Amino acid sequence: MISLLIGLGVSLIVTLVGTPMLIKLVHKLHYGQYIRQDGPQSHLVKRGTPTLGGVVINLAIVLGWAASALYRYIAYHDVPSWTALLVLFAMLSMGLLGFIDDFAKVRKKQNEGLSVGGKFFGQFVFATMFAILALMMPTKNGFPSAQAGISFIEHRIISFEFAGRVVAIVLFVIWVNFLMTAWTNAFNLTDGLDGLASGSSMVAFIGYAMIAYWESYHLKGAGHSGFAYSVSDPQDLAILAACAVAACFGFLWYNTNPAKIFMGDTGSLALGGLFAALSITTHTEVLAVVLGGLFVMETCSDVIQVGYFKMTHKRVFKMAPIHHHFELCGWQENTVVVRFWMIEMLFVLVGLVLFYSNWLVGSGLF
């Protein structure tokens, strides 16, 4: 618990102190956000708002986790886990792609950065590396960082082992690529209003902090009663999720309407990569659809809008993603943001109820 609190505290301090410093630097370099011309006209006043805020979010999570790991090493000689480093790799690699995209936008002085092909290629390379390492890398407690299959909660709904190890690895690589691409784009689409992505991400990572913390006290072979999990180093995963909560919370202080800085793709892609990696390493890839329900809703609205328009040349929503639809219906920006936070809270609550109900059933208590 102390190590978790250290991670929380350091991550919060880094964002609260580091974000205004970054705002001054970005102002000095004239790295302002360029607003899409086809978006709501009310957003044009945001042009020039400092971007690249995701840099401080990434830094806060890394430093928070590192401070926690240092404390555990000094106090208990507990070395950092490979699983945590792997999850950090997923976050930072996706954040790097986002940084390249953001930097290209401010250099070109337009809202088009890294090409779609370039972004997908980068995601493919990093997601493939993550997938292979997650299956191959040795861990402290002997459980692999990931399971070669699709898991709801711990147990695999579909196992990729049906045709041998090589086929299982190939299928798992494809599955991880899908998850990384889907979640990074979902978080990116949600980053469209002041505080929407940072607040919603904070709520989503609260869910994963609680899940990983519960798993850390119910590991197979640890002697605890009830259903047990074969998850690798869940305590480290809980600390990482908690650091993400604190980083988003601290960043939200400056990102709330009217935003003094945007997280940009540097932040949204990194948080999406972190969410995807946590779902894989906690063996809850399908449950993540519920825990990140708001992000799924935003993505589905965009897919529906584009697909329906291509078929009929008509629109289902006034504008997609769906948060813009409600803006154009007359809702104030703050109203949309707070109500969407509430929706994400409900999704996380349902996800946690499903997780705990699964443990009760698995323990024979329900």
Automatic annotation (TrEMBL):
<feature type="transmembrane region" description="Helical">
    <location>
        <begin position="340"/>
        <end position="361"/>
    </location>
</feature>
<dbReference type="GO" id="GO:0008963">
    <property type="term" value="F:phospho-N-acetylmuramoyl-pentapeptide-transferase activity"/>
</dbReference>
<feature type="transmembrane region" description="Helical">
    <location>
        <begin position="157"/>
        <end position="180"/>
    </location>
</feature>
<feature type="transmembrane region" description="Helical">
    <location>
        <begin position="261"/>
        <end position="280"/>
    </location>
</feature>
<comment type="function">
    <text>Catalyzes the initial step of the lipid cycle reactions in the biosynthesis of the cell wall peptidoglycan: transfers peptidoglycan precursor phospho-MurNAc-pentapeptide from UDP-MurNAc-pentapeptide onto the lipid carrier undecaprenyl phosphate, yielding undecaprenyl-pyrophosphoryl-MurNAc-pentapeptide, known as lipid I.</text>
</comment>
<keyword id="KW-0812">Transmembrane</keyword>
<feature type="transmembrane region" description="Helical">
    <location>
        <begin position="80"/>
        <end position="100"/>
    </location>
</feature>
<keyword id="KW-0472">Membrane</keyword>
<protein>
    <recommendedName>
        <fullName>Phospho-N-acetylmuramoyl-pentapeptide-transferase</fullName>
        <ecNumber>2.7.8.13</ecNumber>
    </recommendedName>
</protein>
<keyword id="KW-0460">Magnesium</keyword>
<dbReference type="GO" id="GO:0051301">
    <property type="term" value="P:cell division"/>
</dbReference>
<feature type="transmembrane region" description="Helical">
    <location>
        <begin position="52"/>
        <end position="74"/>
    </location>
</feature>
<keyword id="KW-0133">Cell shape</keyword>
<keyword id="KW-0132">Cell division</keyword>
<dbReference type="GO" id="GO:0051992">
    <property type="term" value="F:UDP-N-acetylmuramoyl-L-alanyl-D-glutamyl-meso-2,6-diaminopimelyl-D-alanyl-D-alanine:undecaprenyl-phosphate transferase activity"/>
</dbReference>
<dbReference type="InterPro" id="IPR018480">
    <property type="entry name" value="PNAcMuramoyl-5peptid_Trfase_CS"/>
</dbReference>
<dbReference type="GO" id="GO:0046872">
    <property type="term" value="F:metal ion binding"/>
</dbReference>
<feature type="transmembrane region" description="Helical">
    <location>
        <begin position="120"/>
        <end position="137"/>
    </location>
</feature>
<dbReference type="GO" id="GO:0008360">
    <property type="term" value="P:regulation of cell shape"/>
</dbReference>
<feature type="transmembrane region" description="Helical">
    <location>
        <begin position="6"/>
        <end position="26"/>
    </location>
</feature>
<keyword id="KW-1133">Transmembrane helix</keyword>
<feature type="binding site">
    <location>
        <position position="265"/>
    </location>
    <ligand>
        <name>Mg(2+)</name>
    </ligand>
</feature>
<comment type="similarity">
    <text>Belongs to the glycosyltransferase 4 family. MraY subfamily.</text>
</comment>
<dbReference type="InterPro" id="IPR003524">
    <property type="entry name" value="PNAcMuramoyl-5peptid_Trfase"/>
</dbReference>
<keyword id="KW-1003">Cell membrane</keyword>
<feature type="transmembrane region" description="Helical">
    <location>
        <begin position="192"/>
        <end position="214"/>
    </location>
</feature>
<keyword id="KW-0573">Peptidoglycan synthesis</keyword>
<comment type="pathway">
    <text>Cell wall biogenesis; peptidoglycan biosynthesis.</text>
</comment>
<dbReference type="GO" id="GO:0005886">
    <property type="term" value="C:plasma membrane"/>
</dbReference>
<keyword id="KW-0131">Cell cycle</keyword>
<keyword id="KW-0961">Cell wall biogenesis/degradation</keyword>
<dbReference type="GO" id="GO:0071555">
    <property type="term" value="P:cell wall organization"/>
</dbReference>
<feature type="binding site">
    <location>
        <position position="188"/>
    </location>
    <ligand>
        <name>Mg(2+)</name>
    </ligand>
</feature>
<keyword id="KW-0479">Metal-binding</keyword>
<keyword id="KW-0808">Transferase</keyword>
<feature type="transmembrane region" description="Helical">
    <location>
        <begin position="237"/>
        <end position="254"/>
    </location>
</feature>
<dbReference type="GO" id="GO:0009252">
    <property type="term" value="P:peptidoglycan biosynthetic process"/>
</dbReference>
<dbReference type="InterPro" id="IPR000715">
    <property type="entry name" value="Glycosyl_transferase_4"/>
</dbReference>
<dbReference type="Pfam" id="PF00953">
    <property type="entry name" value="Glycos_transf_4"/>
</dbReference>
<feature type="transmembrane region" description="Helical">
    <location>
        <begin position="286"/>
        <end position="309"/>
    </location>
</feature>
